[in-house]
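Team,

Forwarding the record for the chain on the shared tracking sheet. I've put the sequence and predicted structure together so nobody has to dig through attachments.
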Amino acid sequence: METYDALLASITPESGETRTILDPATGEAVGEAPVHSVQDLEQAIAAASAAQPAWAALGHDARSAALLKAADAVERSAEELARLLSREQGKPLNGPNARFEVGACAAWLRAAAGTPLEAETVVDDGETRAELHYRPIGVVGAIGPWNWPMMITIWQIAPALRMGNAVVVKPSEYTPLSVLALAK
């Protein structure tokens, strides 16, 4: 399991423009968040677009396995993620707060992984037969909030990834570190 300091260091950019994220309770620096440009966004969209066909081609079983692996990774770093979220946002660790939010992220990844996507017959009356098939749409944009940054981000990205889409995430400018750490 990564230590809190190692987790924070792993998401701190090595170069480029950054801004300091402050602990709202103490005013102390929590870490440095990257500042991105429109060009950075365009590059992220292009990279996601290039990666999406291969991700979709993996099929449902492989994508489910990847989400389960991601849930395991979140659980391995749960305490560090909760501590980072608490410092960055001011949310208490216990109760329906930071530890709860991190646990909910792992649970939602597992739920999305278990979502069946088999074709469904919607009409079969002897004359007409119609089936509903689930297919990816491409690149999905996920915009995270500040209040439940990790959980609401997972609510967006887990089903999109399960379906075979690629995702570009824009975390809240108030809570970027916890979402960057979650994505890592």
